[in-house]
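Hi there. Long-time user, first ticket. I'm pasting a complex I've been working with (about 821 residues overall). I'd like to know whether the download I got is complete or cut off, because the file seemed smaller than I expected. Thanks.
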Amino acid sequence: MSASNCLRCCLLRPSASAAAAARLRQGMPLAAAVAASFSTTANHSANAKPKPGTRAAERNAPPSIRQGKLFTIKKKKKNDSGARVKSPLPGERKAFRKRILLSNTNALPVPGLTDLGAESMLDPSNVCKVLSLPDDVIDQLRADEAFKTTQCWSMFRKPSMLIRTETVDLITRMHAAAKNNKTLRLVLTGDRVTGKSLMLLQAMTQAHLNDWLVVNIPDAQELTTACTEYAPILDTEPMQYMQQNYVLKLIQAIKKSNEKLLLKLTTVFSHAGLPQNIPIKSPLMQLANSAKEAEGAWAVFQALWQEMTAQGHGRPPMLLSLDGLTHIMRISDYRTPAFNPIHSHDLALVRLFTDHLSGATSLPNGGAVIAATSRNNAPRNPSMELALAQREAEQLGGGKDVPQPQPYLKGYDERVEAVLRNVQVIKLQGLSKLEARALMEYWAASGVLRITVDEKSVTEKWALGGSGIVGEMERASLLTMRF
Amino acid sequence: MPPRLNVWAACRALSIRPRPLSARPPLRCAAVPVRTFADSTNTTNTTPAVPASKLPEGYEDVLDSLHGSAPKSPAQPQEPEAALQQEPEPEALKPELQPEPESQAETNESEHADNVLQALDKLKMISYGLNPFDPAVEGHKYGLPQLPLPSPMHMKHRYDDVVVQLTKLIMRDGKLSKAQRLTKDNARRQDMAMILNYLRTSPPPKINPSKPLMPGSPPAAHLPLDPITYITIAIDSVAPLVRVRALAGAAGGGKALDIPVPLAARQRRRMAFQWILDVVEKKPSKGSGRGMFPTRVAEEIVAVVEGRSGVWDKRFLLHKQATSARANLNYKAPPRRH
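Hi, the file is complete. Here it is re-exported in full:
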């Protein structure tokens, strides 16, 4: 049996337990001790509480036992400063970061600025001119996500772009391919901020202006960095994977940007296994609209693709474009059920693009497959670099100067080389001084660049921009602390 | 009045035969350093450094021959080497000084054609009333620089004073170029260029008459396209004129005595911007990513100009406190006892 009073309490706090100690000594229970106290006062009066404040009260007060201080954590008030602002809802911050502003009402309207026409970018006399985008094309390009947040659209009154010699070159090739019912397969490459994405935008603009169908994958890394859901496609060997959520988003973008065409064109095949029954000769828009949920989106996309590329039914040419080529030229971050890495080319949507880029499949109604590399956000990719360098050297006609793979370097990928074996390459470099001048004159006319544009200032900015690298020139003259 | 035609001058550009220049500046050699031991071949030339005016006559002749027309044989005496160190001639004169290469019919032809074209250009300039031999134009690709060099041309003063001060207040850990956002780096959160850019793209502010801006500030519509003026006006308008200094023990009984002290312009700006930064630090940002801090600063600056900012209240409070404390301005510290 354990003692009813703990020994430690008796030793440390003698005042509190004097009576208890006596009890221990006598071996008497508590009730007995009270009953046997020597007192002539009646029990009742003795137990009566004395009036507070009297001496008796002081005398009879329980011995003061100071309670130790308790450690309590106060809850900090949130946003104590008084500035009570509602914090953004989930998703709002990202939307704010990704928003694209295409107009600045402060900027001056540039006199004599003309809109692009269907033939404008084919005309070599338009080189070194700044032309603006027509309003309906702007909406289409927005749906394609062709504008990037890093581009300086938000500084000017109206989205406009410089026509470069490379632009005319690219657009002429596109035009020629469509005329001959052939597919232009081309990769845009070049250093950082040389205007590759903008060149892609120009290609899309041309396609929209000439009523082509446009399918654009705005950022290839969304497909391969395992940030969107994937599922295996049955009966494929080797196993391929579909990304239904992404495909649904893509169908919606196609719908929005090609609205007019999809309303006009009608289906020519019957499709089984779609979420809705689409009879023959119903508009393609109806087919596209049948993708309401991610489930079944891949089937709808396949049907839509089959319809858009149907041969001999008066289908327009098509532009298939992609930005950030490096990301689909590597092993993706997805895994098989056996936890083996999946090559990007085993993702069905990527496969569709690479097949068209390599020439394994062609667009029957003509058109172009254009990919742009990205230099800001790009994983190391020796095969792609090598293949592009080789194609570029071959185009220049250098027999001996074609770069060869390094014998001791690991990481070459045969599938990548196969895709890029015979593509055309346009390597973008700096602007010429005339182009730079045209651009700077446009900036100055917009009131954004507040210097005299003469030979001296053009040369200065051209040199600061690393021999006319257009993004660097922008940084040197628009995004500075000097005005 | 038509300009005086100087046909003779125009023909000077035609000169194919190089000749000693008539308008050559007088020879000025402050000192002719002679390397006595290094020039081992020239043992006789041991003259010490002499001012040009006191040079022996032979030197003049040698220099003349150097600038003269005759192509020199390789066996030319070595004396001119010292003379070469005189101050350099203008660029324009150099081509004429060099000896002609071997005459080839084709090059001579093309040179001749060039010269004729140049001469025609010059004649054209004369007909326009310009001076073809203006030293500011002649021989310089981009003309001569304006002297004294204007402030923004100097490397250390290329940015506006206010912008420099504010940038340094934004700076963290001594990383100035990050505060300027002139380098490419994803991890930064401070940036002056982005603040200015935000001001450029935001709509013109609606100015609140109860919170007047600096007198003489331009109309609101002019501000966005001139972001430096925008930010300067915002800061200067909200900057306090004084600070209140608490003089310890001066009020008697160990109490502090408040004394208003005027501030210099730079101090005023600093105080105002610190207030703005205090507000910005406590604001949640609307978006995410690297551009958020500059966006919040710029939003606060727009709020200051529109009179919405809480910084105005700080200024009013401080001024009120200073006004009530101005009675203490007569306070003189008691002489120190040793």
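A couple of notes from our side: Chain A touches chain B through 33 residues (CB under 8 Å). The radius of gyration of chain A is 38 Å.
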